[in-house]
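Appendix B. Extra example for self-study. Work through it before the problem class; the solution is given directly after the inputs so you can check yourself.
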Amino acid sequence: MGTLQNYNQDTPPPKVNLRPSKLVMRLNRMGAFHQSRLSFLRVLLRKLKTENWSFDQPIWRINNKGVGVATYCARGPDCTYTLIVFSHDLKDDLRSDRVIAKAWDATFTLFDGEVDEEQIIRLRSSVPLQEAGRISETELVLSRANKSLRLFSHVRKCLASGAQPNRSMIDQVGYLMRTTAVYGAGKFGAADLDCWGGRSEFLGSFQPEMLTVWLIRTFSVDLVEHMARIDSPKTCVKLDPEIRRKLGVGNATGLGMAPFLINHPTLIHSWVHARETALARVRSVDLANATTLLNFKNLVRRAKLSAKNWTVTDPHQIKKVECLRGDLDVLLEKSLELSGSTLYPWNILYKWGMAQMSIEGQEALISLMMEPYGALIDDLSSTMSADETTLNRIDGHQTTSALKELVRKTYDWANSIDFDTAAARARIWYISEEKLEPRLGERFEEELEHFEQPLSPGYDAMKLIHDLSQSHKCVNVAEFLLSFPEHRHIVRRVQTIATKEYAEIQDNTIAAEMMPTDLLRCKLSFFGATKFDPRSDRWLRINLFQHMPFPNELSKFDPDDMVFPQLID
Amino acid sequence: MSWSLGETGALALKAARGAGMTWGLAEEASEAVVWLQARGLPGVSALCRYLSWYQLQNSLFPKWTGILYEDNTIPYCPFIIGTAISDGAIKIPTSVNTEGSLGLIRQPLLLLPFVSTSAPEGYGLYVGNFFISVALGKEKLLSYLDFSNALLLDEAECFIRPVSKAPPNFELKGPPLRLPDCYGGCINVFNTFAGKTYAPSTEQSRSTGAGANSIDDD
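Solution. Structure tokens for the complete assembly:
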């Protein structure tokens, strides 16, 4: 493996380019992305802290069965938002994370402003129905959550008896409630993104959704403490704040989220481009002072602790986590070789990591390297959005030969795939009639081609190349599309992403071996998720906001120093 | 009850696809509807009427081959002609002394977004003898005459002509960002067409959905 100096062969200053998309935009790497300073939940908490937002709970009308309504207000310099919670008494046999569920332990909406009784009455008739109900322009987000029965019961019982819950059980599960859907951006009648997208607190991506989940986390703890008080008012205690911070919000995510990365190429480019730019900036740092290096080494130790607590059952993920643990051990050793006089320390460490670590470890290293450099990279979070409200107009004047060249260049990775083989086209994306959600079928086993969604851009691009080669009479794209209108969507896509390096996943999204969980993990890492726990090849569980401060602690703590568990002396 | 423009556009896309349009054309239909509604024009109603007709008649449409047949008795698809305009396959007149004929068009209101974003300043779209809009430049719709029977004419000869002056009293108000309850019937029609893009559930599809055959309680 050698010393780090073996990886310092550049003549300083090193020329640090952004990593090429052919390296970054592969599913096996995207499926190894980790949260970072640029993740959306961290962007949100930084913003709320910087602007001194305040939080309160105006309504708590939850009865002794845990049923009722509660509200949580987040008050900023310009706007107030209210999470409205409807808490239900759900029979155990009705509890399901699947999208086909019709009832949940709690349902939520994020209201734009302060809420009054009239609004609560209106929303009580729709929010508990979720997809079957309708919300309005005063609501930004619709969500629901189920209890982690095992942990919720344990914590409730312990608190009622005056004891704190078992820490290892807390570490193992990590949340009292898990959301099973968080809908925003105009869905089910909610306010369009145009209505609130320009507000400073929501710059970036998915900020209202993150605020909702953070407040749900508070409710989950308030509820368990309330139930413990009901059980035994004389002996009950509150959760120890340190244990409480170990609780995040779980989330169960399935195929419904998977096509997002394919359907939003411009947005995905903005996310990955920001992350890659951050990496390049950090690699370009010439010297790191002793304090920064010490903080980094401690961070690696804390990341090791986090990896130790990352328990999964999926055999593929077990191997990845084991590799990560080994990688972090070696990373700690290597980071001890860095000193205040090491030139371009992060570039050296990065190069070493790319040569010596697993992909899981490499992506973890990248996130860790960004941690000390908030002043250098945090501004990039404001670039992590894209206006996708209007279609890119097709440039009909482009010559067909120029288009062909562009497709060849953009989709060179697809050229090596033999789409004539059954394995290369084994899968098919479609929408199920039952729950109107994306599903993944077997092309050659089911009658589904009529319902196929356009979620295989690589294959579509190769079909486009074929027909472009047959259309010698068409001089330009406008003429070509008159003869081949079926290519209109992929022509638009090719032209749209031409200048966007990270817009396209450079893998076959309909291949037999494709793992939808890779798509899910990529997106969720940008949310700030941790503890990825695949439960099959098409759904997983994660944790959001674990170790982060609660609203009443935000002024006391730096959320950017709380992603990883603290070291125990 | 009301609908956001975002969900309306998403539903219009599926409805257009369900009616038989290619994915690329369905994207254009969705975009056109949102463009119109955001400017206070009844794009949803126009697409709703159009899709029912399209499904039955689309095999009879004259194929647009680059030459307009102005004496056709069967109208053109507004999206085929609209995209031909926005792609540049149909040239917009650029001389003040010329006009462009677009032939007989079904639901001509649906053409307006394409003309408005492509026509140069000072040109308007005429539906029959009605003046519908003035395009003042990219993405800008200055005004329109509120002849309801012109806005929702089933079909009419359409032209792009220079406009000598803008019609008075047609200041556009702030864009309505939602569809009110009265559009419920159209939304139902969209849902019916969108349903044609959904695969009926089978035992196999249920068993391969995310979370199937797995324990999801912890």
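Self-check: Chain A touches chain B through 73 residues (CB under 8 Å). If your reasoning did not lead you there, revisit section 3.
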